[in-house]
Amino acid sequence: MNAETQQRILDAVDAGFEAQLATTRDFVAIPSTRGAEGPCQDMIGDLLRARGYEVDDWHINVDDLKDLRGFGPIEHDFSKARSVVGTYRPQTNGGKSLILQGHCDVVPAGPLELWDTPPFSPVIKDGKMFGRGACDMKSGTIGALYALDAIKAAGLKPTGRIHFQSVIEEESTGVGALSTLQRGYRADACFIPEPTGGKMVRSQVGVIWFRLRVKGHPTHVAFAGSGSNAIMAAYHLVHALQKLEIEWNERAKANRHFGTINHPINFNPGIIKGGDWASSVPAWCDVDCRIAILPGWSVADHQKEILACVTAASRNHRFLANNPPEVEWSGFLSEGYELTDAAVPEAAFGKAFNKVYGGAVEDLVFTALTDTRFYGLNHGIPSLCFGASGGEMHGFNEYVDLDSLKKTTKAMALFIAEWCGVEKA
Asked: Cα separation of 278 and 100, whole Å?
């Protein structure tokens, strides 16, 4: 691809950027929290059909996925869960195939009064777009779509097959991405534009979600000493798991990527529910937790370590010793992933990056996870993860930086053209 062709594509991204932002704003305005992603999938389907893509829109059947590597249990109403894939099939099949994937699910916004502007009424100011999902990762998904648009606007068409995939459940199980693989979608490479601050994810953690279900013995609080407080017992277990977190971080120091990162293993008690009455010693407490594991660490082995930790802590508790808590696996059961055997797609992206940013792309050792793991671990498909800069993901006043978004879109467009090949339309 010569410099003139590259410049035509870059100019097309510039020309289409205002339209890209308008589409991104519409996408962010949809409150697509878990179980409510349908309107986002409708929008993606409409956008793909309007562009002439072959659209596959299907309901996800958990029974088809439950025995696949990386499946995480589903606990909520899944009857409306869907995946949407738009396929471009070239007239001249001379290039390599590609999966472009984004997730449309977002985490809850939290107390609305703590946002400067409403989370689902996106606002552009100071070179940023604010809104829940603006950074993670709706801007990246729409950016990938407009990268494809720019190639067409430049008078070109790809010569490789492209699957544009919009998935759900990235924030809790990953079964949306898993469903596309179960459906049979494959390619020579996968590209996921998660917000990485303009760096390429080299290695990422896996994640285990679990719930502690703790029992107590209720009494009137006037006689609290004769009962057992389930909430306080849950804290006892949380403290024990914090010690396990310390042990795992010590173990992580031997990892070739994560050994240079301070505290890569993070344990988080994320939800706590318990008790029925302020003047009653609580008889129950549930704590939903998340902890990370590193690439190459066995999910099953680390589940056993969690269980052993909880069991040992219970033995040292007056009530739990005879009334052991339950541990439920409540979402992610995900392995870590390291990008390997990807020299060819990385070289193609390196050319695109150098044209837009100058120099070589930096690696990112990521203490969160992405859907790339399914493609690399399950099917040996090299899966690149690179995207824009932003901030406050999963927090208040989430935003994406618009200059970085434009650069990311340009890099994606040039990568698609380089990887898939292009010819005159």
From this structure: 51
Which residues, in sequence order, are bridge partners of residue 189?
98
Which string of DSSP letters, residue by residue, matches 181-250? HHHT---SEEEE----SS-EEEEE-EEEEEEEEEE-B--BGGGGGGSB-HHHHHHHHHHHHHHHHHHHHH
Looking at residue 260, the DSSP 8-state letter turns out to be G
Q: What integer best gives the mean pLDDT of the chain?
A: 97
How confident is the model at residue 174, as a pLDDT?
Answer: 97
pLDDT digits (tens, 9 = 90+) for 182-231: 999 999 999 999 999 999 999 999 999 999 999 999 999 989 999 999 99
pLDDT digits (tens, 9 = 90+) for 249-283: 999 999 999 999 999 999 999 999 999 999 999 99
Paired strand residues for 191: 100, 384
The amino acid at 107: V
> Per-residue b/e over 117-150, b at no fewer than 16 CB within 10 Å?
eebbebbbeeebbbbbbbbbbbbbbbbbbbbbbb
Residues 307/329, Cβ–Cβ less than 8 Å: no
Residue with tokens 């890209």: 20
- Residue 232: what are its φ and ψ, rounded to 5°? -65, -35
- Domains in the chain: ranges and CATH: 3-204+336-424 (3.40.630.10), 206-334 (3.30.70.360)
Q: Which residue has the tokens 């878990």?
A: 34
CB 173 within 8 A of CB 290: no
- Helix, strand or coil, per DSSP, at residue 294: coil
Residue-wise burial string across 252-283, b where 16 or more C-beta atoms lie within 10 A, e elsewhere: beebebbeebeebbebebeeeebbeeeebbbb
